[in-house]
Every structure is written in C-alpha cells, then in structure tokens.
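Regression check, adenosine-5'-triphosphate case 453:
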Amino acid sequence: MTTSPKAAPEVMEKLVSLCKRRGFIFQSSEIYGGAGSVWDYGPLGVELKRNIKELWWNAMVRARDDIEGLDAAILMHPRVWEASGHVAGFVDPLVDCKNCKKRFRADDPRIKGTPGAPDGQCPACGMKGTLSEPRQFNLMFKTFMGPVEDSASVAYLRPETAQGIYVNFLNVQQSTRQKVPFGIAQIGKAFRNEITPGNFIFRTREFEQMEMQFFVEPDDAPKWFDYWKAERMSWHRSLGIDQARLSYHEHSGAELAHYAKAAFDIQFDFGGTLGSQEIEGIHNRGDFDLTQHQAFSGKKLEYFDQPNNKRFLPWVIETSVGADRTTLAVLTNAYREESVAGEDEGRTVLALSPLIAPIKAGVFPLVKKDGMPEMAQKLSAELRAAFPVFYDDSGAIGRRYRRQDEVGTPFCVTVDGESLAEGTVTIRDRDTLQQIRLPAEQVRAHISERIAR
Ligand code: ATP
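Current build output:
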C-alpha cells in the first residue's frame, strides 16, 4: 500500500466534494444559490464537530476542578461592545470602485496604485482613478432588539464568545466559590461580517468558538501563559493531528493587539497556498477586559482574596479556538488517497482518530442470506448501545469497506459463513487493512478499548 500525497489546493477541492457527497458539510441555502460563506453540517459532519467540541469540553471543564462552564447568550447589552473596543476598533479598511461597484480590502495585494488617487487601479474592472479613499468597515452584524428600529435599540450578534465570560466573571466566581487562579470556558456561535471569507469552513461569517478565560494574579500571568501554550498544543495532538503540521507563531510589534501583553497562535499547515494558518490564539490580555467593563458598567469587578484580605482585578490568559477551523484541520490532516496492492482501484481514506470518527464501526453480513443478516443485525444493535455504528448489507463487501474508509470509520466487522458455525466475526482495521477474528461477544469490548486508546 502506498500513499500518494496530493497538492493542497486539490485536496481542499476534493474535501469539499467528499464532504458534500458523504454528508459532512453542505453549502447553506444551496437550492437558492447558497448564502455567502455560511455552511451547514450534515449527518456525519455534526457528529465529527460534536466529538471535537466534547473533547475540548472534557479536557477544559470536566477533567479539571479549576475551570467552570458557561453558556452565555449571543445577544448582549450594546454597551458591552463599546467597552470591549469592538464598536470603535473591530474594523477593516475598505475601498469601493466607483465604476464597477466592487468592494475590496484596502490592503488587497491586487490593487495597483493608491486608493483615492488618480493612479488607483481597480483589480476587478481595471479602471484607473475609480477607487475611493479607504473607509473603516465594522465587522459586527447589527440588528435591533424589540419592535422599534432606532439607534436606541441597536444590538449586535457577538463577534466572539469571550465577552459573555467577562461580564459573568463575578457571577461565576461567587456562585462556585472558585479562587484565583481559575477559568471559565464556553462553546458558542460567533458572527463576523468578514470581507474576505473563504477556503471552505476556514473563514466563514457564522462560526463556533471554544474559548476559555483563565483569571490569575498579575505576577503569575507569564507562568500561566506558558502553561496554556503547552497544554493547548498537546490537545491538538490528542485529536490525531500530525505534530509536523502544527507550529507556534508569536505575535510581535504591530501584530500584537493594543491590550495584549503577549500572544501566540497555534498554526496548522493546510498546505498549498493557504499554508500554515492560525487555528487557535493564546493571549495574555492583562486586566484590559475587566477594567473596561468595570468602567463602562460602573460595577466593581474586583476579586476579593480572603486569605490576604486584598481586592484586585485579575489578569486574563485566554485560549480561543475555532471549532470549524479545527474540523477543517482534522479533515485536511486525515485525507489520503492510496493505491492498494493487488487491486486496480485505489481508495480514499479519512484517517481520523477513532476518538473523533463519526462512525466507530461498520457492521456487514458477507452475503444477504443463510442467517448472516440476522446475526449482523443483532451484533449491530449490541454495539450501537456503546458507540455509533453503521449497518450495511448492500453491494460487494470490498465496496462496503471503501465506503467506510472514505468517511473515516476505523473498524469494520463482518459476519461470514464461519461466524454462524463458530460464533466468530472478522474485524478489519481501516489503516493497516489487517483482519483479526474474534468471538462476537468480545467485539464490543475490543472496539471500545481501541477507541479509548
Ligand atoms: P483571523 O486572523 O484568522 O481572522 P483572528 O485572529 O481574528 O483570526 P480570533 O479573534 O483570535 O481570530 O479568534 C479565535 C479563533 O476563532 C481563530 O483562531 C479561529 O480558529 C476562529 N475564527 C476566527 N474568525 C473565524 C472565521 N471568520 N471563521 C471561522 N473561524 C474563525
């Protein structure tokens, strides 16, 4: 068996097609021509993304006693976004072409000359001197709360989940009696009216974030920053992402947000023109956020340290990762096309970790007679009680294996002639193609153990 690596742009195209064909991801409102850069997760995609979110929630909330979970609302008081700096600062500079009416980011490398000046040439229609001066465009989606559409009722769809955590800092701390250092974590939708969305689910206008804010004593912030940097990298590896495709990128100078004391991205190498890109940000935000909310709300947000009888605003170490972008990273990492020794047709495999694979086992009767379907159905029902299973009795057995390879199912269990006589079945491993024979009653424990490994 040999692997033939593909050029990345081709991989992305093939992934988009596989995801649609097999029910991972569909374009939103496709029958109407699609909604711009919005995607829907199909039956297999919702399982894959949910598995990723659950692994994050388990690692960040359930497996620790120093992080609490939260599910804050998407709509918040509009002052939140003034305090956070998003109303004034969450902007991209844009230029418009007065001739063809197209709109571009002011730093679009295809623009020739200077926007607003006679030499400014439009990358779409090619006219000179038609580009406007750059104007600031806010990326937040605006709407209205209540029946009146006036400026007093403006509301925003949150562009990040973090602010729901800051405004609930004391609610969570006091109700749980947590002591600094401790964290608050949540998973939820965020919305950004991105100017240059694209690359499938890499940059979309509606997406899901998994964010955690860790509140610490100011002097301890560097120590906790290093801790979370390492911890988050090992979480990405636990999803089965190859270490060689993961890296850190440190923000320095102009890249560093004005409030940030330090920031590192965890990057994944998507290959091709996209290359290494951020999938998670780890930031030392100082006390910027709590200071701002304290000033704008007029409510004290200080933490009271009882043993030392002192009040202070904790500093925040933030870890912020996109659920959709991580899903794209694991899909890209898993995609393989292989030729199989002794066979004319190659196979497409998603070598997903069994931990996140949407279906854990395929169960097949070798043929649709002689009691094999009944035995396979019974086994399938038994396995389904422990993990997601797909029962398939249609088509040649080789084709059924290929169908499961393509969606990342790590194990296929086949009931054959010997099964009826001996009570044993075969279990085929997706990656090695090795088959072992086991008594049917041991299959559930065997696969459960392999999934957890
Ligand atoms: P980028 O520079 O790629 O726009 P960012 O630095 O604005 O990202 P953050 O605000 O730090 O991103 O958001 C944290 C994480 O949320 C990102 O690492 C990414 O995984 C995810 N994310 C942000 N914007 C989008 C988007 N438009 N579509 C999908 N995921 C996103």
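Comparison notes: The radius of gyration is 26 Å. The pocket of adenosine-5'-triphosphate is lined by residues 160, 192, 194, 203-204, 207, 209, 278-281, 320-322, 324-325 (CB under 6 Å). No diff flagged against the previous build.
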